[in-house]
Each structure stands twice: as C-alpha cells, then as structure tokens.
Write a structure and sequence with these properties.
Layout (H helix, E strand, L loop, with lengths): L6 H4 L9 H45 L5 E2 L6 E2 L7 H7 L17 H35 L5 H8 L1 H4 L2 H11 L5 H6 L9 H29 L3 H9 L4 H29 L3 H6 L9 H9 L3 H41 L1
Antiparallel strand pairs: 1-2
Helix pairs in contact: 2-14, 3-4, 4-9, 4-11, 7-9, 9-11, 11-14, 13-14
Length: about 350
C-alpha cells in the first residue's frame, strides 16, 4: 500500500496559517492610520510653538542686525536705522576702550563693561543659588521621603514658598531686609542690605534660595520615591553604613532626577529678573543680563535685540552642555542600573 504525500510536505514546506497575510496588511494599515492621527494631533501644537517661540527668536535676530534710529553725533540730525551687520554684537562683546594713560579698561558706562559685568553677576547668582538649593533640597527631600506622622502636612508646608509669585516674594524680602525691617531688628544690626554690593547680593541669594528650594526638593523627592525599599534593606543586611547607603545607593539611583532638577534651576537662574529688579532695581552689583536687556530697550530696540540674542545663545550653550555631558552620564547610569537588576 503506497501513501501519497503532498508536494508541499515533500519539500519541507508548511501550510501557511489562515489569515496571516491579511492580518499583516491590517496591522500595516492600522499603523499608518495611527501615524496620520498622531501627525494631525501634533501639527497644531507645532504651529503654536512656532508662533510663540520660533517667530520671536527669528524676529529678534533680524532686529539685531539693524541699526537703531537716533541722532547723528556729528551732524546732530535724525538718522534712520539701516543694516548694521554685527555692529550691535561687537558693541556688547568686543568694544575696545582706551583711557588717556593707554590702558584698555572700559569705563563703567560703556556697553562692553555693562555686558561683562552683568554676565559675571548672572553666573555668580546661578552658581551660588543652585548649589545651595541643591544641598538644601536634597536634605528636605530625604526628610520628606521618610514615613512619619504628619508627613503630608510637612510636604504641603514646604511647597508654600514655591507657590508664592516671585514678585510677591521679592516685595516680602524687600521689607524684611529694609533698614528698619525684621532682619536688622532680629539680629540687632544696622546693615543697609540694599545699599552695597555684598549685602545686596546676599539678600537676593537668600530670597531666591527660600523661594526655589522647594522646587528642587520636589523633583529630588520624585527620584527618591522610585528607589525600592528592598535595596536599602539588603544593604543593611550586608552591613552597609548610612553613609555607604547614601553614596552607593541613593546618589547613583537619584542622579537622573537630580540632573533634571539642576538643569531646570540653572536655566531659570540664568534668566533671573524679578528678585533683583524689585529688591534693588539692579543697583549695587545686582544687574543681571535680563535686567540689562530690559534697560537697553529704552535706549534702542535693535541693540536690545542683539543683547537678548546673546543671552539666548548663552543659555542654549549651557543647556547643551548639561544635556550632552551630564545628561548622558545620568542616562547611562540609569540604564546600567536597570541592566544590573536584570
């Protein structure tokens, strides 16, 4: 008795499952439909962002290469603005000044001296405030991450300074640091806080740290919440001390959230305007780049546009450095920790 074998079976082929090609076609059609729907939902947001962000940036760049209208210092006649090229930028960045004795130091009133002074003040405020806010925010986040009675009330109370508008905070601390204010009365001092460089900068730093430390604590607390409690328990069983648990477990695992918090605060501090403008008016060594831009608007829009473009580039470079280097390390450490758990 002979057995007949199907040709496909003799060649080792298997019968395709019913509906296989149709199922693949359906999945492709579904992916294309979802892609179109996603594009339709994203396009309006991109249009709004282009109008709100891209257009002002491009318009500021165009204005920055135009000359401001004004009086000709030679003839005394009104001169309309025209194409200035990079002259507005060189006035801020590369202005050469010479005093009668031949030195190249610029007097305080020149644009170059104002820009570099404001840049130094801005970075000084950024470094000091972000460092203090990171340390205090980390300490507050560790406390709020613990389980104790009244933890919810503590978290709500900590967020109160951050919820207060910055202008209100500046006015509040302006009254505190007044000559007859709470600060001098409490410490029995006679410091004119807004009358000299050192006390004025200290007052702004204290106000900014009080205002923004809760923001840092909130972001760091979010990173602490995702660390499993079993990791700490295993470390305790292995005999790790509190400092070893902090340096070997807490810091590496919270690093991504910490880098994001520091990045946000650095970018925000580089744009500092409200606190120094309200508390000191930018006087006594507290003029930041944002204050200088606003003050320059009254002199000439195009020169102010060039200064705002320079400020934008400075902030962009700082953000790029954080994302390219510090952000990459944070991602690598997080992925490495995930591979280790596997």
């Amino acid at each position: 008795m002979t057995t007949q074998v199907e040709p496909g079976a003799r060649r080792g082929r298997t019968t395709p499952r019913a509906g296989g090609p149709d199922k693949e076609v359906g999945q492709d059609r579904k992916e294309k439909t979802q892609g179109r729907a996603a594009a339709l939902l994203v396009i309006p947001s991109l249009i709004v962002l282009s109008i709100v962000i891209l257009y002002p940036v491009v318009n500021a760049i165009i204005m920055s290469v135009q000359q401001d209208q004004g009086l000709d210092p030679v003839t005394g006649t009104f001169v309309a603005g025209g194409f200035a090229g990079v002259a507005n930028y060189t006035h801020w960045l590369l202005q050469q000044c010479a005093s009668p004795n031949g030195t190249a130091t610029c007097p305080p009133g020149t644009l170059g001296a104002q820009f570099w002074s404001a840049t130094g003040v801005t970075f000084f405020f950024t470094v000091v405030t972000v460092a203090l806010e990171t340390l205090l925010g980390f300490w507050m986040a560790i406390i709020m991450a613990r389980t104790f009675r009244g933890r919810s009330a503590l978290r709500a109370a900590v967020l109160v300074p951050w919820a207060i508008p910055t202008a209100v905070t500046a006015k509040l601390w302006f009254f505190i640091f007044a000559f007859d204010g709470i600060a001098n009365t409490l410490f029995n001092t006679s410091i004119l806080w807004t009358g000299s460089d050192g006390p004025a900068r200290a007052a702004i730093i204290i106000a900014d740290v009080w205002k923004t430390t809760p923001f840092m604590a909130l972001l760091i607390l979010a990173g602490l919440q995702i660390i499993p409690a079993e990791v700490y328990e295993a470390a305790k069983v292995d005999g790790a001390s509190a400092w070893q648990r902090f340096t070997q477990i807490t810091l590496p695992l919270v690093k991504p959230a910490l880098m994001v918090a520091i990045l946000f605060r650095v970018l925000d501090a580089l744009r500092m305007y409200d606190l120094p403008a309200i508390m000191t008016g930018g006087a006594n060594g507290t003029t930041t780049l944002s204050i200088l831009v606003v003050n320059q608007i009254g002199v000439g829009f195009n020169s102010a546009a060039a200064l705002s473009t320079i400020t934008f580039l400075i902030i962009f470079i700082v953000a790029f450095i954080f994302v390219r280097f510090l952000g990459a390390n944070a991602v690598e450490s997080a992925s490495g920790g995930a591979r280790g758990k596997k």
